[in-house]
Each structure stands twice: as C-alpha cells, then as structure tokens.
Write a structure and sequence with these properties.
Layout (H helix, E strand, L loop, with lengths): L12 H32 L1 H14 L9 H4 L3 H14 L15 E3 L2 E3 L9 H5 L19 H7 L18
Antiparallel strand pairs: 1-2
Protoporphyrin IX containing FE binds next to helix 1.
Amino acid sequence: MYSSELPQSEKSPYRMRCEAIQFVSAGTDTVSNSMHMLTYHVVEQPHILQRLRDEIRAVQPDSSQPAPLRKLEQLPYLTSVILEALRLGYGVSTRSPRSAPDRVIKYKDWEIPPGTPVGMTPVLMHQNEEKFPEPEKFNPERWVDPAERQRLDKYMVAFSKGTRQCAGIK
Ligand code: HEM
C-alpha cells in the first residue's frame, strides 16, 4: 500500500499502523483457532487421525520430503477435516455488520431502511442443526461427498461472503 499510487493523504503513519495491526490480527488468531480445533478433534478421535494419515501417506510416502501443495489440495478427506475445523473454529465469532447506504433491503416480510446495520455471525449459521445435524460434533464425513460439499458451501461462512469476505481465504 505504501509504495502504491494511493494519494499521500491515504498513507499516513496512523493509517499504515491500523492496516498492519488489522492484517496481523486477521491472519493469526483466526488461523490459530481453526488449527487448535482441528488438532484437538483429530487427536481425540483416532479413526479420523488414522484415515487422515493413510490419505496423506499416499501422496507423501517419505515424511521428510514435503508433499506438493497441489496434491494436498486435492485430498478429499484432508479437505473435509479442514472444512469441519473451519466450521467449528470461528476465526470471527462476533457479528459482522453491513449496511446498504442507499437502498431498502427486503428480507421476507421485513423492509430494512437504508443505512441500517444488519449483523450476522458464523456461530448462528454453523450451529444450525437443520443445515449441520448434530452441530457440536466434529464430523468431517459431512463434507466428503462432492455434491453434498457443494450444497453445504452456501452455509459455510467462516470467511464471510461477498465483497468484504476474508482477503486471506486462499
Ligand atoms: C482460518 C483462517 C481465517 C478465517 C476463519 C478468517 C475469517 C475472516 C472473516 C469472517 C472476515 C470478514 C470480517 C468482517 O465481516 O468484517 C475476514 C476478513 C479479513 N481477513 Fe480473514 N480469516 C482467516 C485468515 C486470514 C489470513 C491468513 C489473512 C491474511 C494473511 C486474513 C486477512 C483478512 C483481511 C485483510 C480481512 C478484511 C477484508 C476486508 O475488510 O475487505 N484472514 N477474515
């Protein structure tokens, strides 16, 4: 940002400091929440650990050699375990307010006036038992079937959705 063509007024030390703090906190606490959720449940349920090991071993027979990221990304069970950790890990658990400054938002019978903040938290969505039966259970199985994963993607909001979704999602 500092070496970009933004006007100098956008590059004040205060602004740069805020951006740096936001980027560091957005990229560390969130990841650590998901990682500790994943580690705990995988270790706590040995059948998950075993299946994960078997799958990873197939692409990384020698654990001293790193597996190519491209191959890891294609592993269905590893992906399912990560999705389940993201579902329960809550990088952001507060409401993320949004508002439409110049139009009325229609939601069912409601009309929300312009400029009214509307908030939503991943916790409400990820604990919805109609979407995720037995929501407290760490169950990677719910993501394994590709068609089911695609259907559930709509309800996976760990990174939020839309134009202000997580910049670090990849
Ligand atoms: C498991 C990991 C992560 C989760 C669950 C997560 C979650 C989120 C969520 C929910 C938001 C939207 C917040 C809002 O509604 O205001 C967000 C925004 C953001 N995230 Fe992440 N995040 C993760 C990792 C990262 C990483 C690794 C980075 C950077 C290295 C990052 C950078 C950002 C930034 C810069 C924004 C603000 C985007 C904007 O306002 O346009 N995040 N993240």
